[in-house]
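Predict structure. Chain length: 385.
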Amino acid sequence: MPVINRIAEFAEDMTAWRRHLHAHPELAFDCHETAAFVVARLRAFGVDEIHQGIATSGIVAIIEGQGAGPTLGLRADMDALPMQETTGLDYASTVGGRMHACGHDGHTTMLLGAARYLAETRKFAGRVALIFQPAEENGGGGGVMVDEGIMDRFAIREVYALHCAPGAPVGSFYTTPGPIMAAVDSFHIHIKGKGGHGAFPHETADPVVAAVGIASAIQTIVSRNTYAEDALVISVTQIHTGSADNIIPDTAYINGTVRTFDPKVQALVQRRLQAIVDGHAAAYAVKADLDYEIGYPATVNDAAKTAFAVDTAREVSAHVTGDAMREMGAEDFSYMLNARPGAYLFLGIGEGATWHHPDFDFNDAAAPAGASFFARVVERALPLG
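Prediction complete.
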């Protein structure tokens, strides 16, 4: 792959950084050791400003180019997942119950690689804001950084991010203009009935039967309440109730996830969920409460910035797709794209375990391509002269 020569020269350093991060995962907003590692590298590179403690452990670092110009933002996430790693690698997680199973160690490394190159060469006019954010997996750290004012504070004009893609060829890129990842919501349904002996169900108000009915009816929202071409996923992922084969319990609990792109579809889901819960509560003589939690908004790429990013990616890789299918996963980079135009792209890392799997590992061979993409975005968007 035609990566920038200078970045290729320190690819081994990038591998070492990434594997250190992989071995020392941190969760949510508590990414202080990761941030300290990043700051130490940035200081060694000679960046101009380092601002710490944003969204608890987030960082914004500034590199000044040659001459006046706007500020372009590049973002990487730093947090890991609460999972037990099973890779058996020499650099596997040293912390039980935590691992980098989504490639954020690689994302941080690629942005560090771009930072080293940009701080050395400064072949651009304006400024680069390097955004290292915590809590992408849980907590919406990107939204918190936006709420704490980074876009205005650092006068960021546009913003870009990469996410690794297992299963796609190493060094390939894909994206699409408009919505690329879905909005994500969750729902919690608490059912209160009247328990009793399993042999005498007529003396109870059975929450198990109500839970089964609600879970089944929820599936009709997709199949009977929305147009077939509207993108919608509703998955019931948890049902908890009962303790023995001869006891009808007092309570039941249902949990699930909702993925949408259209706010009108999202609102319809909320209305239908409430109607289903209320109707089944009446039908089965139980009390049922719905708690609907709105999460990350849809990740929506700016059309012009996406076209620019695709052209830039083609300087780095011969395998670039600019009209990929949108995906039902979610991303809190959505908050940054709501605040500023930009683009979110996937970078192929080859065959291997998928995201959020205990055998997942970022492929270090892909890192120079990602770092080169970031660097070329800056040099092309903020040209000298």
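Summary: The longest strand covers residues 156-165.
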